[in-house]
Structures are given as C-alpha cells and as structure tokens.
Amino acid sequence: MVTAHSTSTVAELGGSPKRSRRMAGILDTIAERGEISLAELTDLFDSSAATLRRDLTVLADQGLIIRTHGGAKAAGSLAELPVALRDTRFQDAKRRIARAAAAHIPRERHAIALSGGTTTAGVARELVNHADLTIVTNSLSIASLAAPYPRLRVVMTGGILRPQSLELVGVLAEGTFNAVNVGTAILGADGFSAEAGVTTHDETEARTNHAMVTKAQRTIVVADGSKIGGAALAQMAETTSVTILITDDSADEGELDKLRAAGVTVVVV
After folding, report:
1. Where exactly does CATH 3.40.50.1360 map onto the chain?
2. Has residue 6 got a pLDDT over 70?
3. How far apart (Å, rounded) are the C-alpha atoms in residues 71 and 175?
4. φ and ψ of 81, to 5 deg
5. What class, spelled out in words, does domain 4-75 have in CATH?
6. pLDDT tens by residue, 194-228
7. Angle at alpha carbon of residue 25, lines to 19 and 28, rounded to 5°
8. Which segments of the chain belong to CATH 1.10.10.10?
9. Whether this model's pTM surpasses 0.85
10. Any idea of the CA torsion for 112, 152, 145, 154, to the nearest 10 degrees?
C-alpha cells in the first residue's frame, strides 16, 4: 500500500546529489558492519554530527536502519536501496552500459519493453531521439522521461505502485505485458548468475518482469558489475531466456565465463 508518508520519504531521500551519495554510503557501511556509532560515521564521511543525525533519522523513517543510542544498526536486509539513492551509485558504469544497450536497438520501427531501475532509465535517455520507437514500461520514471519526446510512443502499464522502485506491479501490469509483443525486453537486475538467473528483491516485481520477458523476442540484461554473480530473492528470468548481458569491467570474470557457457552473449564496457 502506498502512503503519503512513504512517497514523501522517498522524495526526501533524493535531496542533493552529495547528500544522496552520503546516505547510500551510510547504508553500505551499516550493511557491512551491522552497527556503527555516530562518532565513527563523522570520521568516515567528514560531516558534522548534526548532519549525520538528520540522515539517520530519514533512513530510519524509511525503515532502512534502526537508530540506537549513539548510532545505528541494520534493520533486516539493506539489499534494496530506494530508487532515489540507487541513482547515485556506479554512475559512470551505468552510462557506458546504457550507451552500449542503445546501440543494440534497431534504428527502424521497433518496440521495446523496459523494466524499472536506474540503468534501464539510462537506456531510455540514450534512445530519446530514436525515429520510430514504442516503449512499453511499468516504470513511472521512464514514462516521465520519455513523455516529452513526440517521436516516442509510450505504453504505460497499470498496477500497484512500489515506492521503493517507482514501478507498477501486479496483475494489471502483467496483463499489459501479456497483451503486447515487443522485439526487445531490456531488464535491470539486483542479481544475475548462471545458476540463479536474473533476480530481484521483490517477488511481485519479479512476476511482472517475467511477464515482460515472456512476450519479448529477445532479452537484454543491463547490470553493473556489482550485480554479476549475486542472487536476490525472486527470479525474473532464467539464464537461458537472456540473449545479451551488458555489464562493466568490474564484473567477476569467472561468473561471466559461466554465463557465456550458458549461451549468453556477454558485452563488457
């Protein structure tokens, strides 16, 4: 259920780029250590105690951490960052991946499906000047990005809004993907390994994206190197369903070899 509190908190997380990067760093540090003191955070991030208290309050309100006396600790899994914070991570790699993915889209009339995520949004940015492209998406971010360009035809699914990813999911979204045929599905991921396939943290999102992949002639996975070899909760697509993986040179080479052996064409940028 989407509440005013949850959506406003996500908006607050997306403050200045500097603050977003700092808050993403705080989450990474807490995920690694389990618990950390305010004094340690001030040393690590070269920020005042008052600034860091405000950051911790926002993260705690979002349910991402638990405040403790003098610091903070992990609140369950910190694996899924809100989209406002994810946009600050691995930016250079994601731009290279997006450009490479766009180069695989035919310049003549073509229909693509795009899942939500910062890397897939980057692909959409690279395609805004395409002469005859239909974009089918369940991502509010991508639909808003593409809307100002009259040559792009945007088909938006229905569904229930996930505030963490700004994606529409569930049976209404699945119904839209099941009703159309696309040439290329471009899928972001929280993890991709030869054994586990393409995975994400939310099972409802996984079912929606599985419907997207099922109706596509080919599937391109776009994922920075931190996702390669990892496995999140729910599978979106089997490895054998993926035609191309586009990733960066930080990806584990051993896992890339396993994906190649499974029949995936691997592009490293």
Report:
1. 89-268
2. no
3. 45
4. -80, 145
5. mainly alpha
6. 999 999 988 999 999 999 999 999 999 999 999 99
7. 145
8. 4-75
9. no
10. -60
